[in-house]
Amino acid sequence: MAGVSARATPFALTTRVEAHDLDERAHVNNVVYLQWVQDAAAAHWSTLAPETVRDEVAWVALRHEIDYLKPALLGDEITIMTWVGVAEGLSFERFTEMRRRSDDAPLARARTLWCPVDARTGKPRRVSAEVRARCSVPAQGEITEDE
Fold it and tell me: How many CB atoms lie within 10 A of CB 73?
């Protein structure tokens, strides 16, 4: 998996392609891939952060980049994997990859930049060192407290 750090453990979930996911060409619509990216990020966040933190910090997307590699079709089971990348200031990188379970074929890869916001006001906010450590990996060459 390109972009996966030893410290960025992938989080996975699965879904099955349903008729409402398809476009006029009978393959998964581009918007559905984006929904999967967002669903995986939200599910991963809910496992990374304690409820008290989730009540205080929310995330908004700054940028999505998606590479579509192969079509997903009706009935395909899809594994959606996501993992955190590098954070710079208030921009937190996250990667997502969608694969067909039957042949492990990569279908799409995404890179998203997320910004933490105050869950009540929606304004960008800094996060604690603990949240930063859970939601990012050190940049190449960056020294961390545990090294």
Answer: 14
What are the residues whose beta carbons fall under 8 Å from the beta carbon of 6, sequence distance 6 or more?
Answer: none
Question: Residue 37: its pLDDT value, please?
Answer: 98
Q: How confident is the model over 28-55, as pLDDT tens digits? A: 999 999 999 999 999 999 999 999 999 9
Domain 11-134 has CATH 3.10.129.10: yes
Give residues with Cβ within 8 angstroms of 51, minimum separation 6.
none
Residues 6+ apart with CB under 8 A from 121: none
Per-residue pLDDT band at 139 (split at 50, 70, 90): confident
| Token representation of residue 143 | 């020294």
What is the value of pTM for the model shown?
Answer: 0.89
User: Which phi and psi angles does 56 have, rounded to 5°?
Assistant: -100, -35
